[in-house]
Amino acid sequence: MTRRTAALAAVATLSVAGLALSGCAGGDTSGGDGDTLRLWHYEGADSAMGKAWAEAIKVFEEETGATVEFEEKSFEQIQKTASQVLDTDAAPDLMEFNKGNATAGFLASTGLIADISDAVDEYGWDDKLAPSLQTTAKYTEDGVMGGDTWYGIPNYGEFVGVYYNLDAFEEAGLEIPTTYDEFVDVLDAFVEQGVTPLAEAGAEYPLGQLWYQLALSQADRSFVDDYQLYENPVDWSGPEVTYATETLADYVDKGYIAKDVSSVKAEDAGVSFINGTSPIFVSGSWWYGRFVAEATDFEWTMGAFPESTLSLGSSGNLWVVPANAANAELAYEFIDITMRPEIQAIIGNNGGVPVAADAADITDEKSAALIETFNGILDDDGLSFYPDWPAPGFYDVLVQELQGLVTGAQDAAATATNLGEQYDEGTADYR
C-alpha cells in the first residue's frame, strides 16, 4: 500500500477526483483581483478563535483596502470537499484545516496546498512558534509531519492537563497534588470517602488520552519521535506502554475510574465534572472556555499532569493556502495579522491558548493561568501530540482495545500486543 493509499484510508470521505495539479504553484496570484480575500474557517462566532479572527478581518480590511469574502464552513464540509474544491477555481485563498499526517499532510503530499516557506521567512512566523508547534506545520514530500517544508501556520495551541474541583478538595481535606505520588494519594483518599475521583470516557477519546499521558509520564522525547514521527520502531512491550496499560487497568480495579467507563462518552465525562460528580478530569484545554461558562457552582483550576515533562497537545489547526489560491499574498497578510499580539490577546482572554501573545495583554485571571501552564509545557519542549495520530484508523483501534482492557475482556499484555500489531500495520508505509 502506498503512502497516498494510507492517507486515503484515514480520510475515506475525501474524494480524490482530479488530484493532478499541472502548472499549479504556491503563491501564484494569477487570476485574482488583488482586492478580495476568500476565507474559509469553521470556528464558531462565540469561540475564542472566532472572535479573534472576526477582529482580524476588520483590521485586514482597514489596512489593505481589500474585502474579505468569508464563508463559514463546518469541519465536516471542509474535510469532505477539500480534495474536490481545492483543485478548481472555486478554491478559497485561505482556509483553516486540521493538522496531522492524514489531513494537512495528505493535502501537502498531493499538491493541493502550497509550500509557504518563503512567506514564513518573509514574515518571521517561525520566530513566534516553539519547535513542537512547528512540527505540525511542516511536512515531508510524503506528507509526514516534522518535515522541512512549511505548509501551514497555527496561531493557537491546545494541550491536555488535569482539571481539579477546588471545593471538592477542600471539603475532602485534600491539597492539589504536585507530584504523581500525591496524585495517587488523592485518588485513594476520594475512593475511601466513597467518591469515584476521575471523570472518564471509554467510548471516545478521553480514556485513550489518559493511557497516552501515563506512557508519556515514563517517556522522553525519543519515545515521542519514534511513536509519532517513525524515527525508530516502537517497543510495545517496553516500559512506557507497559506502565500505561497496566496502570490504566489498575485505575479501574482501584475504583479511580467507574466500572462502566467503557460505555461513557466524552460529553458525559465533561458534564460529570461540570455538575460536581467527579472532582478530577484529565482532558484538554478545549474544555476550558466551557467550564468557565458552566462550571460556576464551585472553584476549579487546571494544571499539567503532575511530575510529567511531556503532555499531550499540539498546535491548533492550521491556516493553509490552497495551491489554486487566486490571492495568496492577501492570505499571507491576513495570517500575519492573526499573529499580532492584539489579536492573540483576544484568543487568550476568551479561553483559547494563543501561541504569540504578550503576557501583559492577558487580563482574565483564569485565562492567564491556562496560558502560563501551556507556556511551561512549551518551555520544556513537552508537547507530544495525540495517541491516534500515527496511523490511519488508529483512533478506533485505541477505543476498542482499551475498552477490552477496562472491561476485563483482555489483560494488559494482550492489549499492548494488539495495539502494537495494529500500529505497525497502519504505519508500515510511513516508515
From TrEMBL:
Tagged with keyword Cell membrane: no
InterPro entries: Bact_solute-bd_prot1, SBP
Signal peptide start and end residues: 1-25
Pfam families: SBP_bac_8
Keyword Cytoplasm part of the UniProt annotation: no
Gene3D superfamilies: Periplasmic binding protein-like II
Keywords, ordered alphabetically: Signal
Cited PANTHER family: ARABINOSE-BINDING PROTEIN-RELATED, DIACETYLCHITOBIOSE BINDING PROTEIN DASA
Protein's recorded name: Raffinose/stachyose/melibiose transport system substrate-binding protein
Organism in which the protein naturally occurs: Microbacterium marinum
